[in-house]
Amino acid sequence: MRLHHNFKTFSTQYDLDLGEVNLHRFDDKNSQIYIVELKDYDYITYNVYFVENNQVYYLGTKDIDLSKQFKNIKNSPKININNTKNIISINLKINEKYFSKSDFKTKSLLKPLREYSKIEDYLGENISNEDLVDKSLITSNENQHFSITVDKNKVVTVNLKKEKTKYINSNILEGNMNCPDTSLDEIILKNNYFTIQKYNCNDKFFLKEYITFKQGANGIFLYKYGVEQTDKYNPDKILPIKNYGVNDFGIIQFKYVDKEFLRNLLTK
């Protein structure tokens, strides 16, 4: 007899050129804590995840500089976990002495990459052609002006209904490296405007991006870029929403808007 259970897979991105990658798992009653460790000689980055009730949360990042202690480290650093009153504390011990402590309490819920109904699908058995399509990365929206699709490779295609012309952007949904969530949230259409809402991050902040385009006389152009920011290390801190308009970036065609352009715009 085979037991079939629904289960989900999740995805995140790490730059493997940064150095050695290790995964640590800690079980705590009905939950688990996972730490993805990126180790580059005397510098360590911990990315912390929390799993509970079939949901996966990203808790945050901790960077540790060991350059001053590196020559005196006798054994590999040890990680101790303490989970009390909804606060997860991570203590790093070096040479059996506590070196640093980080507390995490904000939980950012991650969206599943795909959900499977049975283990055979995940293992590649009896998968139909329909099941091979990653439905979580496919969406379509339309109104009287646009018909917009996003395929499994995150390619955004915008069809102008009246002009019967097509515009394609293969890079706009790309996220920055080492972000726990770079997924597309939704695409909102209103008259001859549409807004791509997506998640991203940088070294200091988790980002919710609002990228608005306008259909003009000669194509589709960037109209507005808005960003909600959440401080990774002080998530309760209230930060203003950043907004950029045509006066900030000029006339930019749809196909030229990508993560590099938006990252440079955000640093202005």
- Please give the alpha-carbon distance between the first and last residues: 61 Å
Strand portion, in percent? Answer: over 45%
Which structural category fits the helices and strands?
mainly beta
Largest beta-sheet characterization: 5 strands, antiparallel
Give the count of structural domains.
2
Helical percent range? under 10%
Give, in spatial order, the strands making up the sheet with the most strands. 2-3-4-5-9
- Provide a count of the helices: 3
Rg estimate, integer Å: 22 Å
Contiguous runs where pLDDT drops below 50 for at least 5 residues: 125-137
Question: Would you tell me the overall average pLDDT?
Answer: 80
Order of helices and strands: EEEEEEEEEEHEEEEEEEEEHH
The coarse silhouette is: elongated
How many β-strand runs?
A: 19
Walkthrough of the structure:
It is a single chain. The protein has 268 residues and is mainly beta. It folds into 2 domains: 7-109, no CATH class; 133-266, no CATH class. The protein is 6% helix and 50% strand. It contains 3 helices and 19 strands. The chain has helices at 119-123, 246-249, 259-266; strands at 7-9, 20-28, 31-40, 43-52, 55-65, 78-84, 87-94, 97-104, 108-109, 114-116, 139-142, 146-150, 156-160, 165-169, 184-190, 193-201, 205-216, 219-231, 242-245. The strands form 5 sheets. A 5-stranded antiparallel β-sheet has the order 2-3-4-5-9, with no helix packed on it. Strands 15-16-17-18-19 form a 5-stranded antiparallel β-sheet. Strands 11-12-13-14 form a 4-stranded antiparallel β-sheet, with no helix packed on it. A hairpin with a 2-residue loop joins strand 17 and strand 18.
